Amino acid sequence: MRNFSLTLMTAALLATACASQATKESYSQEANRSTTYTKGGTGSGTTDNVLSISAGPAVIISKVYTPIGTYSRVSGLDVLIEYKHFGDKTFGYGCTYTYNQTSFLSGTDKLKMHYIGPSLFLSRHFFNKWRFEAGMSAGYACYSERFQSAKSGFGYLSKAGIEYKISELIGIGIETNCVVLRFSTPEGVQLEENERFGFGRINFLGGLRFYF
């Protein structure tokens, strides 16, 4: 009986030790899942870095002055590449690049515009995998077209969009941007009173988001 009691006590101690170890491992695994969920998972957290690549139609809502004519409401194609770094779930910073190509004169002339500048972002998560984002940027701009040499100037951009995380590393998103570019007035262009030379456009883009 004494040996049997010692055996039972030993078994009980071993079972207690195993249960304690299993509990610790469970807590450790749960903590790791929680960290992954917040860092780069598909939940309400955010990754530190996001790369966005988007494209879509754009409309120049300002007048387009050329040496051979004036145009308005011309449409083209926009491409946007953006890097974002978020120190927390709400605020971030990064860099925005946009390219626009617009054709007019029955396609015989093309207006090309580039913009690049530092950006600030505001991000809010909702419905687990969804994220709303707004941002603004100001920086360098340039444009060129067939009848004029390239010109440099200043630009600014404001944006809003939503995205959906389909996995820990990839998401899809849509956004709209308002882009305003300002340049010195070219020779031969007559502006109206209190008017400044430049281009204002609105785009509607869709694309991929890469989280890392």
Detailed description of the structure:
There is one protein chain. The chain contains one helix and ten strands. The chain is α+β, with helices and mostly antiparallel strands and 212 residues long. A hairpin with a 4-residue loop joins strand 5 and strand 6. The longest helix has 38 residues.
Number of strands: 10
Mean pLDDT across residues: 80
The topology string of helices and strands comes to HEEEEEEEEEE
Global morphology: elongated
Rg measurement, Å: 28 Å
Would you tell me the structural class of the helices and strands? alpha+beta
Low-confidence stretches: 1-15, 26-46
Give the biggest beta sheet.
Answer: 8 strands, antiparallel, barrel
Helix proportion: 10-25%
Tally of contiguous helical segments: 1
Which structural traits does this protein have?
single chain; 8-stranded antiparallel beta barrel; alpha+beta; 212 residues
Layout of helices and strands:
Elements: H1 2-39, E1 49-60, E2 64-66, E3 69-71, E4 74-86, E5 91-104, E6 109-126, E7 130-145, E8 148-165, E9 170-182, E10 198-211
Antiparallel strand pairs: 1-4, 1-10, 2-3, 4-5, 5-6, 6-7, 7-8, 8-9, 9-10
Q: What is this structure, in a nutshell?
A:
The protein has 212 residues and is α+β, with helices and mostly antiparallel strands.
